[in-house]
Specification:
It is built from ten helices and ten strands. The strands form two sheets. It has a six-stranded mixed sheet, sandwiched between helices. Helix 7 links the parallel strand 7 and strand 8. The chain is globular, with a radius of gyration of 19 Å. Helices cover 38% and strands 23% of the residues. The chain has two domains: 167 residues, Rossmann fold (3-Layer(aba) Sandwich); 77 residues, no CATH class. It is an alpha/beta fold. Helix 3 crosses helix 5 and helix 5 packs across helix 6. The chain binds adenosine-5'-triphosphate and magnesium ion. Magnesium ion binds next to helix 1. The site of adenosine-5'-triphosphate has 11 residues, from strand 2 and helix 1.
């Protein structure tokens, strides 16, 4: 069975079918990219997966657990984390304190009961490990709000990693980044597949084609097709959807 399954998900906004019976799977260790034109329903889908929006029909299953009707924090506890297009960092706190707060939020009660004295030390150690994991170890003492845009997005990824997700949802992680920052984010996401599966929504086709093991194309709320990057690049229907907006041919 796949690590993650969305089955027949439906979301209506009045007369608009924003998610039209969407089904997709993500396997362990897979980076699955979700692409599609503006307004295709990508964010609406991610909002339902993370628990921000309630679907009208369908099921969401992670590692055998039905998440469809669980509140967000329960989904996070069961292994589903997301990054936000609008970041959730505390700008007036240091990078270290942002990470410590995130680690603390996700350390279970057993951890606190078993190691009352060691716990503060453990939190700081874990925060530093996370900083190192994403390459922010030299910025730990700076204010999070003073970091460049790309580093703030990187910190947002680290905050999501604090929950030790089985599946990480990334909604346009490269948005607003320059070429160097984008490249660094691609390299970071590439390392994540060692530890988790990733559902990646991104308009940057270079990034998508460099990272994705599989790509699903969403159009008007429906999955047009799912396949390997090569299959998607050569799919005539997909090319027609992107004609005049973004070209898939330039993406290697
Ligand atoms: N809360 C809402 N109420 C009503 N309509 C909405 C709401 N959220 C989204 N929509 C509509 O649902 C459709 C899908 O929007 P969504 O934001 O999911 O698309 P998207 O694929 O993420 O687009 P983009 O690439 O621009 O981020 C759009 O037509 C949008 O206008
Ligand atoms: Mg969106």
């Amino acid at each position: 069975m796949s690590l993650f399954q969305v089955q027949g998900l439906v979301k209506r906004f009045g007369g608009l079918l924003a998610t039209d019976h969407v089904s997709l799977t993500v396997e362990s260790g897979e980076i699955h990219a979700l692409i599609g034109p503006n307004g295709a329903g990508k964010t609406t889908l991610v909002n339902q997966i993370s628990g921000l929006l309630a679907p009208d029909a369908g099921r969401i299953v992670l590692d055998g657990q039905d998440l469809t009707h669980l509140p967000m924090h329960r989904r996070v506890a069961l292994g589903l984390s997301r990054c936000f297009q609008v970041t959730r960092i505390f700008p007036n706190q240091s990078v270290r304190d942002n990470l410590v707060l995130a680690v603390q939020a996700h350390s279970g009660s057993s951890f606190r009961f078993l190691q009352p004295r060691a716990s503060a030390h453990g939190l700081y150690e874990r925060a530093e490990q996370l900083a190192e994991r994403v390459g922010l170890q030299h910025q730990l003492d700076g204010l999070a709000g003073a970091l460049p845009h790309g580093a703030q997005r990187t910190l947002d990824v680290a905050l999501a990693l604090a929950a030790k997700p089985k599946l990480l949802l990334l909604d346009e992680p490269m948005a607003g980044m320059g070429p160097d920052e984008s490249l660094q984010m691609v390299e970071l996401i590439d390392t994540l597949r060692r530890d988790m599966a990733v559902l990646l929504i991104e308009h940057d086709m270079d990034a998508v084609f460099r990272l994705a093991d599989r790509i699903s194309v969403l159009v008007y709320g429906r999955v047009l097709t799912s396949g390997t990057p090569d299959a998607i690049r050569n799919n005539a229907e997909v090319q027609a959807v992107y004609l005049g907006t973004e070209t898939l041919e330039t993406a290697e």
